[in-house]
Amino acid sequence: MLLDCVIIGGGPSGLNASLVLGRARKKVILFDENKPRNAVTHESHGFITRDGIKPSEFKRIAREDLMNYPDITMENQRVTDIKKENDAFVVRAEDGRRFRSRKVLLATGLKDELPAIEGIHQFYGKTLFSCPFCDGWELRDRPLVLISEDNRAFHMAKMISNWSNNLAVCTNGNLIFSEEQKEILIRKQIRVFDDEIAALEGESGRLAKIKFRNGNELFRAGGFVTTGLTQAAPFAEVLGCKMNNMGGIETDTLGRTNIEGVYASGDNSILAPSQLIIAASEGSKAAIGIVHDLVNEDF
Length: 299
Description:
By secondary structure, the protein is an alpha/beta fold. The protein has two domains: about 1-110 and about 230-299, FAD/NAD(P)-binding domain (3-Layer(bba) Sandwich), CATH 3.50.50; about 115-225, FAD/NAD(P)-binding domain, CATH 3.50.50. Helices cover about 25% and strands about 25% of the residues. The protein contains eight helices and 17 strands. The chain has helices spanning about 10-25, 55-65, 130-135, 155-160, 180-185, 235-240, 265-270, 275-299, and strands spanning about 1-10, 30, 70-75, 80-85, 90-95, 100-105, 110-115, 130, 145, 165-170, 190-195, 195-205, 205-210, 215-220, 220-225, 230, 260-265. Strands 1, 2, 3, 4, 5, 6 and 17 form a seven-stranded mixed sheet that branches. The chain has a five-stranded parallel sheet with strand order 8-15-9-10-11, with helices on one face. Helix 1 runs parallel beside helix 2 (about 55-65) and helix 1 (about 10-25) runs parallel beside helix 8. The protein starts with a strand and ends with a helix. Homodimer. Keywords: Flavoprotein, Oxidoreductase.
């Protein structure tokens, strides 16, 4: 059977794209390896009607919605390979089965790479986060830290100051601020610590203090960290998709990549900001683009 579209990635982008395609009477398969980037997150925010929902519960409700549409099939397994054969894409699943499809949507997302600091993983997703728009409200008015090793620190410090006026920035031994930026931070009463971090300490996921290698300590109740971001799957590169200067998959407004028949949506294409509602909307737009193209080809 020739499918209309194979969707790789079962996050909010892939789920919403499946919904739009299913409602357009297109035969689709959604592949979901179930290794979401937000697995460490206890609550997701910023999505109207779903504010504060657990990511696993969001996915459960979404998959229930998709079950109402007979042309949508969900496969709980990994895709291992994609290649173009004549006018169709051949997608190989982990169990060895091959699926032929007219279109492919990459909604595979990104992976976070945390700084190599002892203890950081036990706090990430609990009291240490990457997005103030997602989690700033829960940390409002607390003494916060921003841990950043690159030039995103100045922008992030400005954003975080919207939720707390008690902020310190730790660069873990990296000199990343210009003199002008330092002067601005000082005027805003934001302290900068350029010392190397030895470890983060606290209990039950609650950050309590940052210990520096020089023996000093900084007491904080939570904060944010700038993470490295990499593609969670290699398929964009395998298919020859053009990447933007931030490492995301370059697309037009309806998710089309430079490779005909290949679309991308969600975090893997826009990179930032990363929110459920944005990823879901990107999936919807890409699905609309796919339907437009399928209908025009068949008309």
